[in-house]
């Protein structure tokens, strides 16, 4: 199952790329900066979703492998009951498998927490950049209201062409 952060992150990333490109085309530093910030925020959110998916998949794989290994050890012990030495070795092997499973589970959970913390930091930093870009955009619009209206009109026209196509 794909994490929803991957989907929303990809959408924000695409929106940021479009906004940045429009800013580059129109010469609007504010749109360009805000678009890049939104793109970075989307990328961070997408990476966060990917990290969650990877950790979830790794934890599932470790759990499945440990269950399979434990089942095999139980089957082997069950088949060899009566031989003290073999039974003792099988019990030690089962204990070693359980220890390995616990260590792997702790490692996967630790990696997941680290990935989560990294993605959360990136998300917060991109949020600050978007807010700063928004303030800059507001300032530029206040200074150049006619140019802002022209850009908004061109964007609306371009989106209309994209949505409805050229007839």
Structure report:
By secondary structure, the protein is mostly helical. Helices cover about 90% and strands about 0% of the residues. The chain contains 4 helices and no strands. α3 packs across α4. The longest helix is centred in the C-terminal third of the chain and has 60 residues, at about 85-145. The chain is elongated. The two termini are about 40 Å apart. The mean pLDDT is about 80.
Helices and strands, with pairings:
Layout: H1 4-26, H2 29-79, H3 84-143, H4 145-164
List keywords for this structure.
mainly alpha; elongated; 167 residues; 4 helices
Summarize the structure.
This protein has four helices and no strands. By secondary structure, the chain is mainly α. Helix 1 packs antiparallel against helix 2 (29-79), helix 2 (29-79) packs antiparallel against helix 3 (84-143) and helix 3 packs across helix 4 (145-164).
Structural class: mainly alpha
**What is the CA-CA span between the terminal residues?**
39 Å
The biggest beta sheet is recorded as: none
Q: Please report the number of helical segments.
A: 4
Question: What shape does the CA trace take?
Answer: elongated
- Helix coverage percent of residues? over 70%
Please give the number of β-strands.
0
Average pLDDT for all residues: 79
Report the C-alpha radius of gyration, rounded. Answer: 27 Å
**Model regions low in confidence, pLDDT < 50 over at least 5 residues:** none
Give the DSSP E fraction (strand runs of 2 or more residues).
Answer: under 5%
Helix-strand topology string: HHHH
